[in-house]
Design a protein that fits this description.
Number of helices: 3
Radius of gyration: 31 Å
Strand order of the largest sheet: 1-2-3
Order of helices and strands: HHHEEE
Distance between the termini: 72 Å
Shape: rod-shaped
Helix content: 55-70%
Structural class: alpha+beta
Length: 107
């Protein structure tokens, strides 16, 4: 009986190391996927915020133009509007027709 146990010493340790390496690999892959998803989500959210801020700036410029048709000549053609957690710069140009351009930089 003693001879049988002496031949199997270390077998449990090799099995434990094997499963530890497999578990570590799976955990590292899961963390990598999680980090990638978090980064992707925050980038998409920043893009949506920029889109809505720019849209609000354009609507504000159009509203000012509808209220006062001489708005582009009477006021400086570039205005900055604070919208939520960002700001939109709106430009009104009059050269026979009016153009409203609005943008917001993503931080």
């Amino acid at each position: 009986m003693k001879n049988n146990f002496k031949k199997q010493t270390g077998q449990a340790m090799i099995t434990l190391i094997f499963f530890t390496v497999i578990a570590s690999t799976i955990i590292a892959a899961a963390v990598s996927v999680l980090f990638s998803n978090i980064l992707s989500t925050s980038t998409a959210e920043a893009g949506l915020v920029a889109y809505y801020v720019a849209e609000s700036g354009a609507e504000e410029g159009l509203l000012q133009l509808l209220r006062n048709p001489e708005y582009a000549e009477s006021v400086s053609p570039t205005e900055i509007f604070e919208v939520g957690d960002g700001s939109a710069t709106t430009q009104l140009n009059s050269n026979g027709s009016f153009t409203v351009t609005s943008w917001k930089e993503i931080e």
